Amino acid sequence: MEPEQPDATGPLTILIMVAHPDDIDFGNGGSVATWTGEGHRVVYCLITDGDAGGYDEEVSRTDMATIRREEQTAAGAILGVDELHFLGWPDGRLSVTHELRRDLARVIRQVRPDRVVTQSPTRNLRSMYGSHPDHTAAGEATMCAVYPDARNPFAHPELLADEGLAAHSVSEVWISHMGEGADHYVDTTDAYERKVDALRAHKSQTAHMEDLPGRMWAWGRSQAKAAGFGPDRLAEGYLVLDTR
């Protein structure tokens, strides 16, 4: 029997699955604000709490995890998101394990998204920061969770037997941070200020940054140019995959 498919009409449910708090706001903040403004349901899944982040050595790693959850919750509210799943995996030590795939498949079955957005599973040799090993592991584990895990009722059978979570097929996956490999762009010009505000909510990570608005404007402009958008437009790029 085929897994149950989501209703194709009406607003979409969009699940964004990334490694760290703030990853969404840097890479997808303008898109999120645009999607929620259009009436779509957006849900976050943060695989780690970002406990290895920050610059204050006086802050314990346990406290940092709490701080970063609070910052991500506040940033999500700025962009219209109030559904967040924190999985609590260790920051800086992600690898594509069967257990991580199970945890991601669980969230997919709980949320039942039409679209999953995640990070690239492929290292970009021209982007050191974009190819953080946690990012590539998160992208690869998410792709494994989309197919075959979440849609196969015989994968991770405990999800159905013990938790009542039926199989679910995701119709499409959007890979962010693709640079020249992007084939779809979201015009985020009108969401620029909210994206910057969401990033400022991550005080432990961005308070030290000089000209954060300028950085985000420059990155958005480069994406808009690649998209062929007009002058003074901003964008975020994706590689869109049909995963039906």
TrEMBL record:
Q: Which UniProt keywords apply?
A: Zinc
Secretion signal span? none
The record's annotation in InterPro entries points to: GlcNAc_PI_deacetylase-related, LmbE-like_dom_sf
Q: Which residues form a coiled coil?
A: none
Against Pfam families, the record matches this protein to:
PIG-L
Q: Which domain of life is it from?
A: Bacteria
- What PANTHER family does this protein map onto? LMBE FAMILY PROTEIN, N-ACETYLGLUCOSAMINYL-PHOSPHATIDYLINOSITOL DE-N-ACETYLASE-RELATED
**Record's protein name:** PIG-L family deacetylase
Q: Which organism is it from?
A: Actinomycetospora chlora
